[in-house]
Amino acid sequence: MRRFCSLGSGSTGNATLVETVDGARTTRLLIDCGFTQRELEARLARVGLDTSRLDALFITHEHGDHIGCALGVARRHRVPLWMSRGTWRALGAPELDDGLLHFARDGEAIDIGTLRLAPYTVPHDAAEPLQLCVDDGRARLGVLTDAGSLTTHLLAALQRCDALLLECNHDRAMLAASSYPASLKARVGGRLGHLANDSAAEVLAACRHDGLRHVVAAHLSQQNNQPALAAAALATVLGTAADDVVIANARSGFGWLDLH
User: Fold this and answer.
1) Could you tell me how far CA 245 lies from the centroid of its own chain?
2) What single-letter DSSP state applies at residue 60?
3) What are the two backbone dihedrals, phi and then psi, of residue 252, each rounded to the nearest 5 degrees?
4) Domains of the chain from N-terminus onward
5) 32: region left, alpha or beta (phi > 0 left; psi from -120 to 50 alpha)
6) Which residues pair with 83 in a beta bridge?
7) Kind and range of the H or E element at 205?
8) Is residue 82 exposed (0-12), middle (13-18) or buried (19+ Cβ within 10 Å)?
9) Going along the chain, which residue ranges are E strands?
10) H or E segment to which residue 65 belongs
11) CA 158 → CA 80, 135, 153, distances in Å?
């Protein structure tokens, strides 16, 4: 895999772009599409692309900050779209032209150009959420956002990654002291909610190896977390400075990170 970047990560919208080059062939995958079409185009333009140059979309689940304009992009630009059948049903079983809609399942590999996608299930309050590992035979990216708790299945899926993008949604103390109503605090911090900084650090500790090149803290809550707290939690596991942890923010995500 040549490189990856984020167009934005947080409760206002999420999109991760993966690009690989094999000779004259370039494959571009957008994981989640949680923006309006106009906003997506503006964010793609910042990294020198537009929607017509996407080869595929993969949607992790039906929540608005992840599905966004995905259906519109697929229809307008005829970009193949992958999601779980549960996500499709939760969206009202939308119709797409023949050949555009594809269903993803846990444990079933998907080949898109020179990329191989490995979807895996996670505990989250959605119909059939899937997170993703992406491999081009030379490098492997593991993406984990919107998971409320750790499972052995999740940890097994994220082994041997060259880069990890991990949800660091909240700091437990900040969430407990926040103005959120008790029901929302219970949802966010619950088994089907979002990962706290210390939980993300547990994931990293279970998946860390000498070949791990990049670690990204993603999906940070603007109300219940701080970049410095997320970075410190992951850096402690890595045994490095907090500056070595990339932070994906809501407005600009993060720039291209090379993998080879």
Assistant:
1) 16
2) -
3) -125, 0
4) 3-258 (3.60.15.10)
5) left
6) 103
7) helix 197-207
8) buried
9) 3-8, 15-22, 25-31, 56-58, 81-84, 101-104, 110-112, 115-121, 130-135, 140-144, 163-167, 214-218, 246-247, 254-258
10) helix 64-67
11) 25, 12, 9
Taking residue 54's Cβ as centre, other Cβ atoms within 10 Å add up to 21
DSSP 3-state assignment of 21? strand
- pLDDT of the chain, 260 residues: tens digit per residue: 799 999 999 999 999 999 999 888 899 999 999 999 999 999 999 999 999 999 999 999 999 999 999 999 999 999 999 999 999 999 999 999 888 999 999 999 999 999 999 999 999 999 999 999 999 999 999 999 999 999 999 999 999 999 999 999 999 999 999 999 999 999 999 999 999 999 999 999 999 999 999 999 999 999 999 999 999 999 999 999 999 999 999 999 999 999 97
* Separation of CA 173 from chain center: 25
84: helix, coil or strand? strand
pTM over 0.85: yes
| Nearest by Cα to 56 from 130, 114, 131 | 114
Q: Give DSSP secondary structure letters for 123-185.
A: --SSSS-EEEEEE-SS-EEEEE-S-SS--HHHHHHTTT-SEEEEE--B-HHHHHHSSS-HHHH
Token couple for 44: 């793609």
User: Which tokens is 163 given?
Assistant: 């880069």
Determine the Cα angle at 102 with ends 167 and 99, to 5°: 140
Would you tell me how many other CB atoms lie within 10 Å of the CB of residue 38?
9
Token pair recorded at residue 184 = 């929302």
Neighbours of 57 (CB within 10 A): 27
